[in-house]
Design a protein that fits this description.
The protein has two helices and no strands. By secondary structure, it is mainly α. The chain has one domain. It starts with 8 loop residues before the first helix and ends with a helix.
Length: about 60
């Protein structure tokens, strides 16, 4: 599928910034859950910010 660029450089920066923020939130969440000794199932919560981070990076790359 061909992506048609519909954001400019400013939009790319915003999406990339969001990607880094979501990645940091996922890392912080994982560290916090590991320190607290939470069960492994609870660590699945980190998938949401990781998914959002990936969306931000992919949207910035594809300019969509």
């Amino acid at each position: 599928m061909i992506a048609i660029p519909n954001i400019g450089p400013r939009g790319q920066v915003q999406r990339r910034r969001f990607g880094f923020i979501a990645l940091g939130a996922a890392a912080l969440l994982m560290v916090l859950l590991m320190i607290l000794g939470a069960p492994r199932a609870w660590r699945l919560l980190a998938l949401l910010p990781l998914w959002l981070s990936a969306l931000g990076f992919f949207q910035a790359r594809d300019k969509t």
